């Protein structure tokens, strides 16, 4: 089994380049020093994600010909998939309608032709890639139109709803967009939404909608209810009038588990039923090109304990309400909107070309966010605390893989953890501890245990070839700026976003598992050993360039507007279709 961090006697500082063992062999660790035992020097939080908790088509060295590094396989596959995605995009309205029908087994909504014209006028390239919109809308298609309208009205009138005070009303009338009730204390978000909708509002049907003020997703329904909603919707059928089954909470499960499908991995584990687990894989696994699948918290429930947002028992299921939110997880049923926050417009800064980026390490800087830090809160297992601890670990040895410079075959390397940390990472908190309890001294504990360093400007960050993006309290707001730079972006997250199915991991950015168990191996693949052997610098440069171009071509305001336009057309169909004619709001050329 791959040994990540054994507390053993430290070797000389140059051991990183020396302790190379034969391909396929696993180096055994020397015995622990009696004065530096595991008990005396506790290691940083371990990578706890089970081997099963990776995307279904994971790449493992044992499954590849000639034992090539799995990242090489993933990069090659990503290139093929991205080229295929671009090649298959519709070129005419007629093709787009046919593709919509092929994917979703239904007609597009009224206004689809106006949306197409907008997309063409604004040079939207991925005109068919709106699966996230469909998956968000699908459960609501099972609601009788009159019941859907009743729930829309309740969102703006029923103060007993848990999200009433955390949302605001938006109206479109005769092409004019206004923000109404509840928008007063959400001025920045309100204005951003109004500005985005102004691009196409004159082509929208009249509608009323409720939108979240903050970033937190809020709509949750039981796994049984969601499964039934989706099954009926796919069959073109409607629910009865009683919502009793929707609010029935399945017994014997934690609230989070109750939100998962009945046959999901989370439910099966909770019932001590067998789950699919890969066997014979003792080498490192990486996130596949299906990064969104790796974010599925019902198929990978171990991840929930590794992120402050989900590291608790969870909310109890409720009715399905059409609330628009700017962040969601796989456990939530909110309608996902692009987030046009201030970070979207952040300056890229002075950005050297790849060869002039002098820092050949992985950079991360951020505040102590992602959880509330207090005694008993388990904050050390939250995403940012684990990252800072891992990247600044000092004790024992670390075993990881390098790729051979000529053949790309795997080599197993064991070196002092301190050397590994210094060679591959520059990771630290910035500022002073926040979101922590001063009363129980956790703030002081954070300051003492964790590395804090100065805040870096965009100019300074751009000196690094590699930058890491991880979740804050919710999804990170830095991704757009990072992707717009010439640096290669590593990203770890549990939050799928509007663009997540419109980008190609390993072609535009590097996905990292939530437990960071692949972080050192991934950094080593690109950066190589201190003497330069095993590096893939040219490949890293190419992926960084491809990512920057993706940001320029597919992460524009126009792309977010086209996404929102299409989502609101789907919403308008739900809002205005007739009880006795469910196709009354379908687009019929």
From TrEMBL:
Entry keyword annotation includes Cell membrane: no
Ranges where the record places region Disordered: 26-49
Domain Glycosyl transferase CAP10: 302-578
Entry superkingdom: Eukaryota
UniProt GO molecular function: transferase activity
Alphabetical keyword list: Transferase
Matching SMART domains: CAP10
Entry annotated with the keyword Metal-binding: no
Name under which the protein is recorded: Glycosyl transferase family 90-domain-containing protein
């Amino acid at each position: 089994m791959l040994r990540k961090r054994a507390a053993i006697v430290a070797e000389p500082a140059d051991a990183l380049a020396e302790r190379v063992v034969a391909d396929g062999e696993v180096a055994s660790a020397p015995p622990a020093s009696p004065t530096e035992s595991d008990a005396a020097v506790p290691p940083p939080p371990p990578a706890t994600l089970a081997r099963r908790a990776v995307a279904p088509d994971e790449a493992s060295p044992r499954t590849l010909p000639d034992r090539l590094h799995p990242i090489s396989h993933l990069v090659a596959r990503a290139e093929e998939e991205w080229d295929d995605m671009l090649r298959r995009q519709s070129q005419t309205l007629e093709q787009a309608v046919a593709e919509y029908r092929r994917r979703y087994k239904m007609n597009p909504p009224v206004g689809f032709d106006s949306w197409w014209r907008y997309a063409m006028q604004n040079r939207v390239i991925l005109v068919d890639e709106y699966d996230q919109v469909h998956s968000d809308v699908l459960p609501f298609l099972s609601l009788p139109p009159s019941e859907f309208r009743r729930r829309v009205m309740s969102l703006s009138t029923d103060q007993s709803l848990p999200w009433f005070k955390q949302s605001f009303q938006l109206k479109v009338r005769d092409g004019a967009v206004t923000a109404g009730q509840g928008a007063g204390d959400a001025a920045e978000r309100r204005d951003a939404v109004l500005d985005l909708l102004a691009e196409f509002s004159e082509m929208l049907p009249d509608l009323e909608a409720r939108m979240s003020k903050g970033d937190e997703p809020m709509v949750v329904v039981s796994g049984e209810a969601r499964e039934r909603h989706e099954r009926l919707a796919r069959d073109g059928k409607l629910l009865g009038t009683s919502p009793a089954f929707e609010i029935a909470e399945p017994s014997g499960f934690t609230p989070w588990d109750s939100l998962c499908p009945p046959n999901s991995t989370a439910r099966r584990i909770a019932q001590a039923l067998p789950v699919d687990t890969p066997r014979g894989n003792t080498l490192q696994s990486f996130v596949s090109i299906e990064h969104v699948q790796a974010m599925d918290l019902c198929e990978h429930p171990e991840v929930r304990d590794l992120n402050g947002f989900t590291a608790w028992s969870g909310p109890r299921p409720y009715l399905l309400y059409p609330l628009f939110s700017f962040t969601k997880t796989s456990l939530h049923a909110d309608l996902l909107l692009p987030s046009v926050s201030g970070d979207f417009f952040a300056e890229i800064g002075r950005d050297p070309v790849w060869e002039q980026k002098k820092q050949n390490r992985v950079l991360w800087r951020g505040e102590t966010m992602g959880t509330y830090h207090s005694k008993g809160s388990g904050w050390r297992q939250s995403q940012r605390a684990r990252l800072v601890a891992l990247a600044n670990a000092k004790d024992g040895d670390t075993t990881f893989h390098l790729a051979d410079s000529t053949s790309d075959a795997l080599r197993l390397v064991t070196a002092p953890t301190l050397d590994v940390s210094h060679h591959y990472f520059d990771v630290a908190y910035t500022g002073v501890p926040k979101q922590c309890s001063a009363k129980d001294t956790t703030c002081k504990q954070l300051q003492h245990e964790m590395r804090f360093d100065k805040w870096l400007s965009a100019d300074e960050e751009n000196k690094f070839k590699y930058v890491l993006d991880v979740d804050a309290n919710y999804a990170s707001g830095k991704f757009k700026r990072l992707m717009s730079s010439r640096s290669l972006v590593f990203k770890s997250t549990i939050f799928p976003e509007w663009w997540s199915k419109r980008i190609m991991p390993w072609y535009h950015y590097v996905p990292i598992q939530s437990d960071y168990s692949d972080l050192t191996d991934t950094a080593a693949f690109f950066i190589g050993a201190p003497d330069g052997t095993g590096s893939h610098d040219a490949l890293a440069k190419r992926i960084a360039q491809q990512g920057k171009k993706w940001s320029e071509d597919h992460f524009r305001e126009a792309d977010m507007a086209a996404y929102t336009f299409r989502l609101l057309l789907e919403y308008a169909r739900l809002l205005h279709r007739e009880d006795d004619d469910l196709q009354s709001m379908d687009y019929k050329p």
